[in-house]
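does this look right to u?? manganese (II) ion version
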Amino acid sequence: MSRSFETLSRIIETLADESVSKVVVVHHNGDPDAVGSALALQAVFQNIRIAAPLGVSVPARNLLKAVSGEVLERPRYEDFDQVVIVDTSNRVQLGDEMERIKEPIIIDHHAYHEPWPDALFLYVDPNKASCCELVLEIVENAIEERLTDFDFTAGTDIDRLETVGLSLVTGIWTDTAGFRHANPGTFDSVARLLTATGISIADILTILEQEPEFHDGRREANLKAAQRMEWTEIGDLVVATSHVSAYEASAARALTLIGADVAFCVSDTKDEIRASARARKKAVDDHGVRLGHVMNRVGKRLGFMGGGHDGAAGMNLPKKDAQKKGITVPGIEETLKALLEGLREEIGG
Ligand SMILES: [Mn+2]
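got this back:
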């Protein structure tokens, strides 16, 4: 519908115009197809920044690290002459950001598009299995038209070649689920990229198979929670309880990953006592565990504010509030005991 070479050449002209400052924006929780598209455009054309106002996924973060890419987390769109949105099929994926974005260029490969009434140019090619293949088309056209100093030849800066190769092939690989959804054209694109940039599929897998990194104190919290864990059976469910000094939500989730069906974790700090709960899907689907209800009910009983979802919930009590209201702040043991009791009531175990 929106695929025309007229549009494509106008987009390439804008990208190639060094005097036009551009920001390439990726959708919510930007994946390697979106981030890879943006990184390749940045490597090939001048005066481009990348913005990920609603975050990027873990594999996309690994890709950014591999090519030393940087993203703006709070872009000021008014500082740029042109906004380019990649791999995004509707405005919802950019949430409130769309209120501040004016006349964007849209480059995408999804078949179904909600209208973008104020798009400057819309280039959509649903025959492409990934947005990165579309970007490769743009790059190759720009080289052909001599609109970039980038080239797939030995004379080109090796860092730029590598960035383009790693970014586009990683995007293609992930969007096609490791070539499961690839079409013949996909292999064509990948073969050209591997030949031209000297990277290999092994390089891509190295990026994608990196262990997730632990930020802040989560690792310590997870390990301490495991070390201090106690567990009991309620009906058919294994229920774990533990306590940490921070990151109780991460710790509760960690306990479900090592085998608990339901996990409660409490942290008691100077200012606040907090509890977090996580349940495996089986506990929710087959045993009627509704952690949001449990947290809400037990919270009310003990003076906490509590609630959440069936599989993930929490409650907290600021100590200042407790003092004001004349509530005795419960300790760790008492809180965990009340939560186990609340769960028993909930599932009738
Ligand atoms: Mn995509």
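Residues 33, 87, 109, 130-131, 175 surround manganese (II) ion (CB under 6 Å). idk if thats expected tbh
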